[in-house]
Amino acid sequence: MTNGRKLRLAMAGGGEGAFIGAIHRMAAALDGDWELVAGAFSSDAGRNRRTGAQLGLSPDRVHATLDALLADERGRGPDERIDAVAIVTPNYLHAPMAIAALDAGFPVFSEKPMAMNLAEARAIADAVRRSGQLYALAFTYSGYPMVEEARARVARGDFGAIRLIHVEYIQGWLSRPLDREGNKQAEWRTDPARAGLGGCLGDIGTHAFQLAEHVSGHRVEALSADVTTHVAGRMLDDDVNVLVRFDGGARGTLRATQVAAGEENGLRLRIHGERGGLEWSQMEPNTLTLRWLDRPAEMVRAGGPGLADTTLPRLRTPSGHPEGYIEAFGNLYRAVARLLREQGPTDGEPIGGAGWFPGLEPGLRTMAFVEAVLANAASNDKWTPLSVPMR
Amino acid sequence: MTNGRKLRLAMAGGGEGAFIGAIHRMAAALDGDWELVAGAFSSDAGRNRRTGAQLGLSPDRVHATLDALLADERGRGPDERIDAVAIVTPNYLHAPMAIAALDAGFPVFSEKPMAMNLAEARAIADAVRRSGQLYALAFTYSGYPMVEEARARVARGDFGAIRLIHVEYIQGWLSRPLDREGNKQAEWRTDPARAGLGGCLGDIGTHAFQLAEHVSGHRVEALSADVTTHVAGRMLDDDVNVLVRFDGGARGTLRATQVAAGEENGLRLRIHGERGGLEWSQMEPNTLTLRWLDRPAEMVRAGGPGLADTTLPRLRTPSGHPEGYIEAFGNLYRAVARLLREQGPTDGEPIGGAGWFPGLEPGLRTMAFVEAVLANAASNDKWTPLSVPMR
Amino acid sequence: MTNGRKLRLAMAGGGEGAFIGAIHRMAAALDGDWELVAGAFSSDAGRNRRTGAQLGLSPDRVHATLDALLADERGRGPDERIDAVAIVTPNYLHAPMAIAALDAGFPVFSEKPMAMNLAEARAIADAVRRSGQLYALAFTYSGYPMVEEARARVARGDFGAIRLIHVEYIQGWLSRPLDREGNKQAEWRTDPARAGLGGCLGDIGTHAFQLAEHVSGHRVEALSADVTTHVAGRMLDDDVNVLVRFDGGARGTLRATQVAAGEENGLRLRIHGERGGLEWSQMEPNTLTLRWLDRPAEMVRAGGPGLADTTLPRLRTPSGHPEGYIEAFGNLYRAVARLLREQGPTDGEPIGGAGWFPGLEPGLRTMAFVEAVLANAASNDKWTPLSVPMR
Amino acid sequence: MTNGRKLRLAMAGGGEGAFIGAIHRMAAALDGDWELVAGAFSSDAGRNRRTGAQLGLSPDRVHATLDALLADERGRGPDERIDAVAIVTPNYLHAPMAIAALDAGFPVFSEKPMAMNLAEARAIADAVRRSGQLYALAFTYSGYPMVEEARARVARGDFGAIRLIHVEYIQGWLSRPLDREGNKQAEWRTDPARAGLGGCLGDIGTHAFQLAEHVSGHRVEALSADVTTHVAGRMLDDDVNVLVRFDGGARGTLRATQVAAGEENGLRLRIHGERGGLEWSQMEPNTLTLRWLDRPAEMVRAGGPGLADTTLPRLRTPSGHPEGYIEAFGNLYRAVARLLREQGPTDGEPIGGAGWFPGLEPGLRTMAFVEAVLANAASNDKWTPLSVPMR
After folding, report:
1. Do residues A130 and A233 both lie within one domain?
2. I need a surface site. Which of A148, C163, C326, D8 has the fewest CB within 10 A?
3. How many angstroms separate the CA atoms of A154 and A273, rounded?
4. Measured in Å, how far apart are chain D's first and last C-alpha atoms?
């Protein structure tokens, strides 16, 4: 039904001055799969209107609220009606908006973290099951081709049994109290009422956690955490160090901070098994470094020789023509489009498939992770188990 | 007139199996400035039709030839008619197509090299002057933010008078005779009838030349060249080494090869002046390394502190979220769109402006460079001057 | 008294097939400060004799035991007698040998870890106080020029108050059970009777701990640890992850492993304060990377501009001529020589001085660290304090 | 005869304030093969005396001239007499001193360039043949383990027939007229009467040339050069760019400059053959990067898996413990010692052998290279052949 036309996207959030909404729009546009046709961009009426106009939307598709948008879209015919809703608001709106969209019969592509807490995340999961609609989460880094290469190589046993899994996500932009100096991005991210339980933990610790579990194929079973707020007056954490124990015996650490002054966006994953290991760093995303017990280290390159079959469809350019963050994001939009076009709403393809995207499972697990970290940090217990009933 | 709507693009070339056409489409789509509405994608009727359908074009906007496309578009009203033509064919079609489009009253965004030789390039220049239409050339690497940062820093004198300018463009994909093994990209690029005078020289040597002159602000005055074909049976060069002398006294080398087995797309520029120097490498495009006589080296980063005013509008993401080749390309499309929207056809903004793009001047100079290199290589003269009458 | 002549060194351990003894000999020889004149290299009589002969020692200076050596040396006149003893044996001999040498009136340069446990280390400290002799510990990495640069910059406040201190020491050579395959280095390092309480923890975790405290100037106050043995049958740990809290409020992690298959000798330190941070990696020791909130990152280079006064005397070559591990080691030997020549036995110069070397304080603290890590890992307590009475 | 004792070295030049003399002393001392016993360090009597005293030499072994030293040594018995002379003076003394030492019956280890010009170099070659003594040249970079690894891999055909050879040696320390500001190193290096025909060309261009020929196994047959002096008033070149053609059809460039402001000591070699290529950079000397047409790039590491048999004896430390410039230099001293001990004076072992060192052949070829570059630069000829009669 959708074949031969662009899919129609509505956006909730992402008005003037927002960061991630513009990224979503570029990522969706990149491969020609999507066109943005409707939006509820801002609770500020003027900003909402201006954003719609700048994006060339018809004024009757720009709504003051998501509810109004959903009602309008449900009334439109199949030649006009949106195919999905992208939710790019601050965290506190993720759950109510996702549930509203799902219950209105629309697939959802939501920003992370999934929700403010695990209870909200479970309510979303219920709505997904109830509605039968697709639900995708913007764990963007999963979209990088070399992340898929890493995952595929661990899965096929290149390194033997996995022993060590270390992930870190290091930013410095909140080293100063920007949250009290008028920076909107900083403001809501450090406000428990809008960000949820975790600060840095929810904002980027969740990315680190999802990446480690996604690539390693192992699940965290227990953790021990040190959670700190370095900037005086800040209400949420800005620095988190966690000891993690995985199923199968792998051990590691997870580190997330937003007060590593001078650092940019240092998401880095290192995994070692019996015979070798891998390293991937988001800031140089087109190289996957492999090291081996018995032969020289290799630099596997996007577009170069030796890539897994599941990596290839995530590439757009020949080797040496760098792809970046927007392309990684675009791979998630492409995967969602593919599923909507070819199969209708489902839970997505198997991991590694061109139609795979992060959905409920990492969403629920990351929220449980946030709660377990905070519970552990507030207690004198050495270890806190991480168990996440998936239903 | 074009404000508030997407600009309409037609594409000549870029059918199934082509490489650069798809890049143009992604780059044009990225920022929401352009929509592809028409095309003459291939001389193969089936391939042409299929490409149009895959791209969601209306069948009446898909034409067997560019001439048919231009005639059709001239007959359409201002609410439908295309705003520009992208030419993404093999080299031998660049000049006739550009001239036809310009003379039909349409702006042109052409792949490089400008033409098969300098005479053809001059004919294009004549058509530009005759038609008054905009003419842009896909010297893509000029679109990288950190290339602009480099240019701006040289221009404002950070390094003092420039002494050394070295540029290299190193690929390995033609190390084997792919041109005789069914690789379409290799076939036409090594066929004088379709590629023009230069092989590697025309294909990537021109990029290197344009980048060096663009960033340094200096112009090559004389050169001495060694031009080689390493792969037996190949009809055009695959390896070029050139000594270059610039106005103002700077000296350097230009190296381009497509037989550096194992290399990817290694375009690298190094410039040194009296007080320091810079290094930029396309494969890690978001870092500009600066070295100084009297203080530690600096890594200036896309999105980080200390950027020039003219660099900032070329960025889409915060620091540490890598942008790449498609985004660099998108900056050229964005610049062309900006000029078409705001000012109508012109010669473009001053270098550094958000509406700047490479046009006639680098186009003509690169063609003259190709001819001078080949003339020098064929003679016993040490030095061949490079003089390019711009009219 | 020693001015104008080389200092005379005796060595305990370091016979044929040993690793670190040869490093000590090269480091001591490098700057012409020392000559090796005596030794008790091995408990194997043949190996002992051959090592002495290969090193060109007079047979009467080669002894079956350190005790015999000490007795002999005490009987020699001031024109012959050794100036110091280097102890390069497996760990279990460090304490008894150091105490014997000190009590015999000789300065000691000992391999790390200081001893098998804290009690032994305290016995050494008592002998140092009793004898008044110099005691130096081979925390080699402290000898790198750029480690001194890092320390000096933290100390002078370049980064503001320190918030984050992360150190890791990653090796892979014990990924397989080499300890049961005839590798002598592996054998004793994994044998509690010869290595002491810690495996990887004692062997390289101590280096990481000392480096972090030395450079940051902060002391670990409490820790929480996960200690693992991944290789079946191994009696000591081979992988350690620790959450660390420092005085002054800095938080961080310490990671040490010898089963990161394919890794070499990855000692890396990262420290961040309010305004910026530093990164130093032992495998590229001549660069210190500095990142800043408000300006581009810098690469401070050995021999380059901008170095601290205390860094300069630790350099032997102009910038760009790499110095390495042996030179770092040589800086410790040079510092010991300097003190012995100029001042006689003391506690060493202030940190940063050309005569500074690691001695009792880091020795005792690292042994207390090993015990605290193991105690914490064996308990259900979240945090174990680290307090080290220095007397 | 020399087995079981250190070899005795005399040094000509290398007094207080000199650079390379101290490096020679450290390199010779490193492995315990040599002891410095005599010297004629400076024509300044006070400096000469002080240097000898600082080095702990007996005053009767410190001489005002090399001639006096040689006469004295010839009169000493075999238990005292020196085994070799190291010549570490400015260039103009290399030839007369080498000839004097050789004719007095002593092996010579000389700094490069071999001499002021090719005629002088030939006179040295005559003296070598006449005397039958060993003659070694400090082409230090040949001593790096990973340079041997590179050479061995090219020689055994890993890359197929070699097509591209590019070498560069980039320094910045002469960007300012230090030669007229009291810098002694700069003074003599830019004075034709003391440095010889070439400035930068002789000082570092010769290193680049030797490295390229040594590793590639190919010999330059013809060249075309651009030779520049950028700093006003300087009498010798400070920037050289050369097109080079090798036997067997390989083409490339050689670049040497001392006015690349901010650069340190950037000697870098890149070689590509039919199937792959290598890259080695002196400033990160322990990695050899290999790239391949058909598989991922490899980082071959000093001490890591996969090394050639001839590389191993050039290593002193396990992988990840960096060795540097002094160790590379030490490998040459070790090779000379080995030959003197085991075989007596010879032409050295085959390239790759542990007793190989650079001698007459690269010495003569580099001097011929300097003359050919200058001849070409002074003419209008495109190509100047490089032919070097070896006798």
Report:
1. no
2. D8
3. 9
4. 32
Q: Is residue B311 part of a domain?
A: yes
Task: Kindly state whether residues A152 and A276 are assigned to the same domain.
Answer: yes
C130 with C157, same domain: the answer is: no
The partner residue sitting opposite C323, judged by closest CB among D22, D303, D326, is: D326
Judge: B175–D293 Cβ closer than 8 Å, yes or no.
yes
D275 phi, psi to nearest 5 deg: -110, -10
The CB-based long-range contact list for C373-380 (8 Å cut-off, 24+ gap) reads: C373/C198, C373/C201, C373/C205, C373/C223, C373/C225, C373/C227, C373/C240, C373/C242, C374/C197, C374/C198, C374/C201, C374/C225, C374/C227, C376/C223, C376/C224, C376/C225, C377/C225, C377/C226, C377/C227, C379/A382, C380/A381, C380/A382, C380/A383
CA distance A324 to A313: 15
Query: Is A4's Cβ below 8 Å from some Cβ in B?
Result: yes
Cβ distance D251 to B241 under 8 Å? yes
State how far residue C247 is from chain A, nearest Cα, in angstroms: 14
- For residue C102, what are its two tokens? 């000190």
The answer to whether B290 and B298 are in contact (CB under 8 A) is yes
CA gap B149, B157 in Å, rounded:
12
C101 shares a domain with C55: yes
One domain for residues C174 and C249: yes
C278 touches chain B (CB under 8 A): no
The residue among D269, D251, D250 whose CA lies nearest residue D208 is D269
From A160, A143, A80, A109, select the one nearest A327 (Cα to Cα): A143
Q: How many helices (H) and strands (E) does chain D have?
A: 12, 14
Q: Are B11 and B39 in contact (CB under 8 A)?
A: yes
C177: CATH: 3.30.360.10
* pLDDT tens per residue, range C69-96: 999 999 999 999 999 999 999 999 999 9
B339 neighbors C334 (Cβ within 8 angstroms): no
pLDDT digits (tens, 9 = 90+) for C130-142: 999 999 999 999 9
Chain B positions in Cβ-Cβ contact with residue A55 (cut-off 8 Å): 32
- One-character DSSP codes across D125-190: HHHHHHH---EEE--GGGGSHHHHHHHHHHHTTTT-SEEEEEEEEE--TTSS-GGGTT-HHHHHHT
What number of CA atoms fall less than 13 Å from residue D306's CA on the CB side? 21
CA atoms D8, D328, C52, C337: torsion sign? positive
Task: Round to whole Å and give the CA distance between C209 and B26.
Answer: 50
Hey, what are D183's tokens? 């810098």
- Cα(B56)–Cα(B42) distance, rounded to whole angstroms? 16
Q: CB–CB of A380 and C382 under 8 A?
A: yes
pLDDT of A342: 80
Pairing, β A297-301 against β D297-301: antiparallel
pLDDT of residue B311: 97
User: Is D296 in Cβ contact with A297 (below 8 Å)?
Assistant: no
SS3 of residue A292 by DSSP = strand
Residue B257 in contact with partner chain D when CB distance is under 8 A: yes
In a domain, B275, yes or no: yes
Q: Which of these three, A87, A111, A140, is where a domain ends?
A: A140
Q: Is the CB of A274 less than 8 angstroms away from the CB of C263?
A: no
Residue D299 near residue D289, CB atoms below 8 Å: yes
Question: CA gyration radius for chain C?
Answer: 20
Return the bridge partners of C7, or none.
C34
Beta bridge partners of A40: A12
Kindly report which listed range (B75-89, C179-193, D67-81) carries the lowest average pLDDT score. Answer: C179-193
- Cα distance between residue B293 and residue B301, in whole Å: 20
Tell me, what amino acid is at B326? Answer: I
Could you list the residue range(s) of the whole structural domain that residue C198 is in?
Answer: 144-317+358-377
Interface probe for D, chosen from C58, C147, C204, C264 (most Cβ of D below 10 Å), is C264
